[in-house]
Design brief:
- The chain is an alpha/beta fold and 276 residues long.
- The chain has 2 domains: 164 residues, 3-Layer(aba) Sandwich (Rossmann fold), CATH 3.40.50; 90 residues, no CATH class.
- Helix content is 43%, strand content 15%.
- It contains 10 helices and 6 strands.
- β1 and β2 form a beta hairpin.
- The protein is globular, with a radius of gyration of 20 Å.
- The N and C termini lie far apart (44 Å).
- Pfam families: Abhydrolase_3.
- It comes from Stichopus japonicus.
- One of its GO terms (molecular function) is hydrolase activity.
Length: 276
């Protein structure tokens, strides 16, 4: 069950997509998005990072720190691809940004990415002054899978009595659950974009999840998650499940008719994007 996935076609597919990402975006340094921002390279507890210093950086005044974990399903992309965003954050916030280049699947399966990001975050908190950062004003954030990593790291830091607490976490459309792949949002997405299509369809999310958990996407594992057989019926009825994943947790503000119209408009825009 815990094979390396070396002969798995789905793993080769992931590697092919990674190569395409590197070929098209890896070397796209977008310094125009953060004029005056300086980028350095470093290593925090064994993990490669890119350090962005704002134009107004001073040796006499400490600035906030922002640690960014990139998205990509824990399988695609790299910190370099988010160079432009990191520069813009540093410039806009006048903050030192740490863009963490954690290893992805299948090389680095669970809990590898979490441990790397946790170790890098801990390093900055304990050595903040060396980078001109105020340890009392350090935040973590990320998009998609990076949001998942941010939430996990925030909990680990909170439980670690040896390091200062984080100021806040910024979760951008975070990937926060792999318990139920039949939530209404998944069903609506499949109905709207058809099976296997769209940016983040159920099939893609299941692939990323199995790659993260096992380092492989064998058909039996993929099918198990697609059918929600990885979660037993007794757990689905438990208080813990209902309190953390129940459908009633959605705030009223996100159930309004006005927001529904906005969502439908965005869906139409996404469906028409490729036709322009």
């Amino acid at each position: 069950m815990h094979s390396s996935g070396g002969d798995d076609p789905s793993v080769r597919t992931i590697e092919g997509v990674k190569a395409a990402f590197r070929w098209t975006l890896e070397d796209a340094v977008m310094d125009h998005l953060g004029p005056g921002v300086t980028r350095l390279e470093g290593t925090f507890n064994g993990t490669k990072v890119y350090i962005y210093q704002p134009p107004a950086m001073s040796t006499e005044r400490l600035v906030p720190g922002f640690i960014y974990f990139h998205g990509g399903g824990l399988a695609l992309g790299s910190a370099k691809i988010f160079d432009g965003l990191a520069r813009k954050i540093s410039s806009r916030l006048n903050a030192v940004v740490i863009n963490v280049d954690y290893d992805t699947t299948p090389k680095n399966k669970f809990p590898g990415p979490i441990n790397q990001c946790y170790a890098a975050t801990k390093w900055l908190l304990l050595n903040a002054r060396d980078y001109g950062v105020d340890f009392r004003r350090v935040a973590v954030g990320g998009d998609s899978a990076g949001g998942y990593l941010s939430a996990a790291v925030s909990q680990l830091i909170y439980d670690d009595e040896m390091v200062p607490n984080l100021k806040l976490q910024v979760l951008v459309y975070p990937w926060t659950q792999c318990f139920d792949f039949h939530f209404p949002s998944y069903q609506e997405y499949t109905k709207t974009f058809e099976i296997g299509k769209g940016l983040v369809c159920r099939e893609a999310m299941v692939l990323f999840c199995t790659m993260h958990a096992w380092g492989t996407a064998r058909p039996d594992l993929v099918q198990m998650l697609m059918e929600n057989r990885h979660i037993g019926p007794s757990f689905k009825k438990s208080t813990l499940y209902q309190e953390t994943l129940g459908h009633d947790l959605l705030p009223d503000a996100y159930r309004s008719a006005a927001l529904t119209k906005v969502r439908l408009h965005l869906i139409r825009e996404m469906k028409n994007f490729g036709k322009r």
